Amino acid sequence: MSADVLLASPSASFAEGQYNRSNARLHGARKVGHTVQGGVTKAETSASVPASAFSIAPMMEYTTVHFRAFARILTRRALLYTEMEVDQTLIHNAAYRDRYLPFPADQHSVALQLGGSDPASMRRAAAYAAPFGYDEVNLNAGCPSETVAGKGCFGAALMRQPLLVAELCTSMREGLASAVLPGAPVPEVTVKHRLGVDDSDSYAELRDFIGTVSERGSVSRFIVHGRIALLNGISPADNRSIPPLRPGWVAALRRDFPHLSFDYNGGLSTATEVARARADGPLAGAGFMIGRAAYARPWDCLSNADVAVFGEDAPSVPSRRVAIERYAEYCDDVERLAADDGELAPNPRVLVKPVLNLFHGERGCGNWKRSSDYLLRQAKLRASNADSTTPRTSDLLHAMMRVIDDDVLDAPPPPASFSGNDDDEEEEDSDSDSPMRSSMMTLPGSATSRAGLGDGVRVVVSGRRRRKKAQIVYENGGEEEEEGEEEGKNLKASAAA
Ligand SMILES: Cc1cc2nc3c(=O)[nH]c(=O)nc-3n(C[C@H](O)[C@H](O)[C@H](O)COP(=O)(O)O)c2cc1C
């Protein structure tokens, strides 16, 4: 993997031919067809499956350029979202822009997420981002964080003002059009949002939101986190687990707005689940986004995506050993570039962080993390000693690999097929118990009313052998995924570490 354009000027990175023009076409493609082979509908060939068929969610402090580099090693095809970048930061901090907006040429397709609520500021922020060649620019209308939503109308609070959202999208598009490099297409502007916010939680309000934003803001693709946001009183982590998931509402949006695209987000864990959901049911052929699981269990989640979802013949990497080797090369590139430019290289801890969960649930996972901590401390000590040479991050990664058994290092990605049941994951995700299926069995009967949505609750335990997964399934079509919440805590813990 090359990081030649990391920290390069926008024009330099574009001049090196990084822009993937075909991608804009793929994003805009209407996804049709309901019979799916290996995640590819009959109306699609592998080459025409849009990157947005499977995307990795924007996650503050997680989907950094380095995590995206690692994710790109695991899947050549998935769409990668950045962390949210706040408009004011981009406008007022040139050093921040130079540090955080560039990305390697081989990282496409990448979507930049912007946060803000002032159309003029969003126009300026989008213009600053335009020359970097993002494939899509997304407006955050779903984040419930106090630091975001609390500042007036921002993040999920924007859902209460669809006209403003439409204006923001128009402004972002104008800003992008004013500053893309000559010959480059204007990236598509999309919106990531919730089903509603606080007591603005009816399907009718959601439908009005989509109608206004699509018509007045010319937005044709929406990424829907399939639960409402509660802005008063519960934490962002609780906001990702307590409000019930309602994938049926996203299916209803597809039915009500057949000319628009909707990607579903919330509660999914693996590319295999995505392939299955694309294959059948009310969300067949839709795009799907995964957040927490992509970070907490990158191998299970991502490594078979190219085959399972995109219909490629082979996965991007044959084993975790190869993935680490490639990521080590990336780290070498990053450190060499920094040295060439006379800049400080990223802290090795920052570079190692994306691979820490690579062996989640595997033999040796604890040793892998402990050895990384030990080696990083040693490296820090050596760095502070003028007489010794500082090891490269790739040296640390190679040393860490020694604590993992060869059979684990060389094991292939999970099978991409989802018809058999001879695999733990397959059993865990068995059709009858999957969160998507359980929820879809209770779709809102009418696209315009909530009638028939009861408040009954039942518990479904799925997964027969390895990792039982308990879900509280609301009869109204949502579920609280307890394991997902656990992952959220793990993410926090690893962030604190
Ligand atoms: C640590 C963390 C940070 C997040 N940051 C953002 C963000 O910056 N922008 C955004 O739209 N959503 C953000 N989210 C929400 C995710 O994009 C996603 O919508 C949510 O996690 C539900 O998907 P999942 O169930 O697949 O994790 C964040 C989630 C987590 C766990």
Automatic annotation (TrEMBL):
Renumbered to this chain, the Polar residues biased-composition regions fall at: 435-449
Query: Positions of the region Disordered?
Result: 407-497
Tell me which UniProt keywords the record has, alphabetically. Answer: Flavoprotein, FMN, NADP, Oxidoreductase, RNA-binding, tRNA processing, tRNA-binding
Compositional bias (Acidic residues) spans?
A: 421-432, 477-486
Q: Which InterPro entries match?
A: Aldolase_TIM, DUS-like_FMN-bd, DusA, tRNA_hU_synthase_CS
From which residue to which does the signal peptide run?
Answer: none
Ranges where the DUS-like FMN-binding domain occurs? 56-328
* The keyword Transmembrane helix appears for this protein: no
Cofactor names from the entry are: FMN
Q: SUPFAM superfamilies per the record?
A: FMN-linked oxidoreductases
> A Pfam family matched by this chain, by name?
Dus
Gene Ontology terms, MF aspect: flavin adenine dinucleotide binding; tRNA binding; tRNA dihydrouridine synthase activity
Q: Does Flavoprotein appear among the keywords?
A: yes
Name-wise, this protein is DUS-like FMN-binding domain-containing protein
Q: Which organism is it from?
A: Pycnococcus provasolii
What does the record give as the organism's lineage?
Eukaryota, Viridiplantae, Chlorophyta, Pseudoscourfieldiophyceae, Pseudoscourfieldiales
